[in-house]
């Protein structure tokens, strides 16, 4: 089978939406009955995203195999409903490490190892090898591979990749390779005129490096004027039909529809010789229904997200997407109240009283509280304050990873009376180490040394609220990313007071799920339920108005669902 490759590059600025456009292109092709895979290339020298601060590139997304990767792979999995592996995220660090290892083994037979041809060849080989790996449950080899090149054209670190694809287009032949260039068309407030010069310069630079874009996707705040489209066509050496406008829309799930409306399927059929049946595409029809329903929602609910990286929403991208999907599935419009956990601490009352009172006001007005994962001591006392408030006020609460661990600390301090109870991550000398470091963790190295990837959690209670939400399942498979765990030796102290560990690992040694008796909804999970599961969006399509009319799970209100359903959207119609 001859494989097709679609390369997505970006110009002018980074963060322009290449990931969403790459995901949307894949979604459209998958709706045509093709098997599609995706590769994200990050030109940084890091081996993977595991040691990044969320303020660098947003959240670290975790795959089934434990790969710590760029958040764009999360978009690929959500849009395309596929399962990717760590090798679907290619970095400069991985390529250089691979080439240097080969050189040390003597694979190059004493030759001088250079960027061209050795690095560029390694890039091409990696892409061709990974493009053949099945990402669907049926095990069929993909027919189309969408490749997103991070950063912008002209960045010095991306030059080897640009050169590799310049060579690659001739290796796989023109009819099997297509380049989509995403560029910004700014519209200054002073004139209101759409400016094409940045796009012209970006395309000129790309062409100078040996790649000619087949499609120019213009990101703009309003739809492109016809005259602007024709101007870009004339100066960038493409037909007007090859200039695609993606303007700001109410939801990212409208982007595939915008691309479809502008004839992108017909273009790919001609350009890549794709054999596609021109039949009604049910998948995109459901996307439209979902997007329309999202715009018509009237009921509102709010969730307080108490974290330490709240200045950048991408730091919690999967958490926000999971909440949005859950809200949409039960016909609610979601409002996320971002609260910097440090602003909830008593010290903030003295140093910045305005921020302190604003933070507490947001928390008190929210319908539910979510404390996500994180690392480091900063802001942890504020998270404990939020957990304490949710527990005492009977507000729906969900703690994820560190959020669960801090719920254990809060209960130990305020109910068991262990005032110094803490995690050894924050206080190694505590007399009540309720959260401890896992014995297999290597403290000398940070990268890739956590408990990572998909692991099985067994339910130990038939009356568990979370078990009901999972459809009364006996176990769940979810993705993990942590170095510390609840101290199993102290477990009985908590359960004697109604703080139950209802989910554990296969060996019964690791506490995975906590629930509090006599509370509306107080749940903590060691795993990361925000990372997608197969069929997430399909479930949303099927969960129409019928869902909001059905009786909810006993003891849980619709507003509570916003903090609950996020654990697994699939349980919505059980």
Taking strands numbered 1, 2, ... along the chain, how are they ordered across the largest sheet? Answer: 11-10-12-13-21-20-19-16-17
Query: From the alpha-carbon coordinates, what is the Rg to the nearest angstrom?
Result: 25 Å
**Count of helical stretches:** 21
Strand content: 15-25%
* CATH topology (level 3) name of the largest domain: Rossmann fold
- Estimate nothing, just give the exact number of structural domains: 2
Write the CATH architecture name of the largest domain: 3-Layer(aba) Sandwich
Structural write-up:
With 574 residues, this protein is of the alpha/beta class. It folds into two domains: 4-291, P-loop containing nucleotide triphosphate hydrolases (Rossmann fold, 3-Layer(aba) Sandwich); 298-547, Class I glutamine amidotransferase (GATase) domain (Rossmann fold), CATH 3.40.50. Helix content is 37%, strand content 20%. The strands form four sheets. It has a nine-stranded mixed beta sheet with strand order 11-10-12-13-21-20-19-16-17, with helices on both faces. It has a seven-stranded parallel beta sheet with strand order 5-2-6-1-7-8-9, with helices on both faces. It has a three-stranded mixed beta sheet with strand order 14-15-18, covered by helices on one side. Helix 15 (380-392) links the parallel strand 12 and strand 13. The protein is globular. Residues 4-274 form the CTP synthase N-terminal domain. One of its GO terms (molecular function) is CTP synthase activity. It comes from Sinocyclocheilus grahami. Belongs to the CTP synthase family. Its EC number is 6.3.4.2.
């Amino acid at each position: 089978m001859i494989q097709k490759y679609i390369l997505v590059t970006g110009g002018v600025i980074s963060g322009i939406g290449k990931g969403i456009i790459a995901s949307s292109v894949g979604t459209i092709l998958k709706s045509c009955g093709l098997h599609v895979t995706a590769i994200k290339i990050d030109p940084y020298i890091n081996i993977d995203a595991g040691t990044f601060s969320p303020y660098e590139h947003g959240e670290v997304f975790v795959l089934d195999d434990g790969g710590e990767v760029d958040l764009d792979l999360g978009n690929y999995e959500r849009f395309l409903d596929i399962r990717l592996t760590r090798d679907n995220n290619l970095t400069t660090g991985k390529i250089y490490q691979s080439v240097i290892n080969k050189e040390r083994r003597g694979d190059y037979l004493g030759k001088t190892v250079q960027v061209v041809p050795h690095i560029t060849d390694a890039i091409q080989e990696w892409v061709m090898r990974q493009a053949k790996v099945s990402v669907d449950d049926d095990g069929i080899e993909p027919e189309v591979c969408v490749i997103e090149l991070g950063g912008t054209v002209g960045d010095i670190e991306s030059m080897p990749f640009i050169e590799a694809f310049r060579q690659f287009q001739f290796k796989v032949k023109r009819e099997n390779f297509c380049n989509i260039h995403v560029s910004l068309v700014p519209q200054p407030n002073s004139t209101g005129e759409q400016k094409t010069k940045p796009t012209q310069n970006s395309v000129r630079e790309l062409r100078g490096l040996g790649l000619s874009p087949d499609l120019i996707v213009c990101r703009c705040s309003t739809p492109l004027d016809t005259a602007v489209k024709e101007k870009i066509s004339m100066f960038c050496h493409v037909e007007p039909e090859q200039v695609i406008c993606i303007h700001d829309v109410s939801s990212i799930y409208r982007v595939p529809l915008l691309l479809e409306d502008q004839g992108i399927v017909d273009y790919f059929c001609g350009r890549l010789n794709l054999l596609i049946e021109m039949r009604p595409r049910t998948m995109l029809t459901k996307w439209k229904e979902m997007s329309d329903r999202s715009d018509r929602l009237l009921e509102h609910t709010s969730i307080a997200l108490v974290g330490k990286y709240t200045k950048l929403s991408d730091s919690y991208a999967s958490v926000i997407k999971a909440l949005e999907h859950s809200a949409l599935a039960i016909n609610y419009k979601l409002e996320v109240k971002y609260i910097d956990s440090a602003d909830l601490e008593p010290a903030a009352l003295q140093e910045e009283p305005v921020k302190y009172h604003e933070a507490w006001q947001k928390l008190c007005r929210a319908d539910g509280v979510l404390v996500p994962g994180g690392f480091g001591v900063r802001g942890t006392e504020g998270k404990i304050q939020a957990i304490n408030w949710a527990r005492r006020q009977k507000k729906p609460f969900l703690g994820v990873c560190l959020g669960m661990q801090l719920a254990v600390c809060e209960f130990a301090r305020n109910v068991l009376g262990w005032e110094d109870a803490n995690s050894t991550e924050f206080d190694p000398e505590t007399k009540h180490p309720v959260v401890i470091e896992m014995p297999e963790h290597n403290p000398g190295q940070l990268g890739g040394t956590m408990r990572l990837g998909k692991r099985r959690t067994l339910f130990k209670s038939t009356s568990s609220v979370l078990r009901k939400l999972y459809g009364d399942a006996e176990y769940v498979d979810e993705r993990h990313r942590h170095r510390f765990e609840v101290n199993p030796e102290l477990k009985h102290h908590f359960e004697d007071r109604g703080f139950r560990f209802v989910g554990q690992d296969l060996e019964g040694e690791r506490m995975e799920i906590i629930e509090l008796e006599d509370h509306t909804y107080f749940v903590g999970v060691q795993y990361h339920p925000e990372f997608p599961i197969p069929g997430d969006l399909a479930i949303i399509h099927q969960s129409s108005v019928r869902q909001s009319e059905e009786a909810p799970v006993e003891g849980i209100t619709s507003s509570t669902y916003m903090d609950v359903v996020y654990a697994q959207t699939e349980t919505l119609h059980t």
